[in-house]
Every structure is written in C-alpha cells, then in structure tokens.
Amino acid sequence: MARYTGPVCRLCRREGKKLFLKGDRCFSPKCAIERRAFPPGQHGTSRRWSRKESDYATQLREKQRARRAYGILERQFRRYFAEADRRTGLTGANLLIILESRLDNVVFRMGLADSRAQARQLTNHGHISLNGRKTNIASALVRPGDIVAITERAGGLTYFKDRAERIEQHTAPEWLTVDSQKMVAKVLDLPTREQIDTDVDEQLIVEYYSR
I need a surface site. Which of 108, 134, 165, 180 has the fewest CB within 10 A? Predict the structure, then answer.
C-alpha cells in the first residue's frame, strides 16, 4: 500500500500546526514548527502565503490536517467519511470517532507508541493482539468491550520491557482503561467528540466533501 515516506516535519509545516507525528520531538525545541513556522519550499516565506485563503482552501487544509494527523491516504479517508455520513448523528463527529477507533490509534492512546506511525508499525509487525488474537491490521476498528494487548512473544522484547514505566506515566483517554504492567487495554466505550483532543474543525471537512 502506498504511503508517504518523506520527512513528516514538512507535513506539520505545510499545515501550519503541530500534527504530533514525531513523538517526543514535537514537544522539544527541535520541533520544526518551533524553528521554521512557515511552509516548506523556496516560496515558503513569500508574501503569497499571507494572503487570505478561499473557503475551499480552508476546507481542504482542514481535511489534509486530519488525514495526515491519523496517517491515512485519501481513498480510505473518503471511505471513512462515507461511513460517518451513513451513521446517525453529526457526520463530522462520527468521522473523528471512526478515526479514533482504529487499532493503531488505540495502541497510540495506550502509550505503547510515541506516534500513530510507530503504533502502526508495531501492529504491522504482529506485536499487537485484539481480543486474544494476533492481528497485523492497523485499520481494524475496535468496539466497546474489545481487549487490546501485546502478544505473548512481544512481551519478551526489550522495547516493551522498557515501555512499562512510560505507559504508567501516560494518561489514557477516558474511554480506555489501561493496565500498564500487563500492557492491556479495554475499550470501555466509543469516544465522544468531547473526549477527542485532535485539533481539527470537523465541520470544515464536512463542507469540503459536501461541495
């Protein structure tokens, strides 16, 4: 499957805000937004970037921010929007709930990884189990009552042995309960919009796809 493999800090600079794609680096002075708060490329500091954006450009940028924050390609993101539109309730809130329900995001929210990209890698490499069965499908959607954990084999890896302390200090969202010692999480319920801290204006995404 195709995926962006370039420097992810360029994505944050292009979107004009932190997408938290590099884990601890995003909270340090080395963060690209802190050092170069302008779009990448030779025209990044030109006057044209200071012009007022059109409604379409604003909607596009918000869609791109959400897509890049969760590490999802356009076709899959569009499918998620179609699914959100079919569900009852607000389409924008439904979209964010679907994105938060992805297995790689749950692994990230547990504190097993510093970024969603790292969480996706852990899942793809078969280190994560869902309801007791090993899975390598990062896009699997969890449901209330699901159990997410590391596999028995992964428990012997140095990475996870060193991770227990960080998980204990990590604050998981209210819709997850995490056992830091066993590295197991239970999905208590699907998140509500108020419990999702991703800095996205979902209404702009709805307007973009509703043109």
Answer: 165
Helix axes 91-100, 74-86, angle to 10 degrees: 120
CB 122 within 8 A of CB 128: yes
Six-digit token string for 102? 């992805």
Domains of the chain, each with CATH number or no CATH? 9-99+198-209 (1.10.1050.10), 102-187 (3.10.290.10)
Closest CA to 171 of 119, 97, 111: 111
Q: Quick one: DSSP state of residue 36?
A: -
Taking the CB of residue 8, how many other CB atoms lie within 10 A of it?
Answer: 19
Residue 61, token pair as written in the block: 């940028």
Residue keyed to tokens 């510093």: 114
pLDDT digits (tens, 9 = 90+) for 26-62: 556 666 655 666 566 655 555 555 567 788 988 998 9
Q: What average pLDDT does range 159-175 have in this prediction?
A: 88
Q: Is residue 200 over pLDDT 60?
A: yes
Examine the pLDDT at 175 and tell me if it is beyond 90.
yes
CA 185 – CA 150 distance, rounded (Å): 10
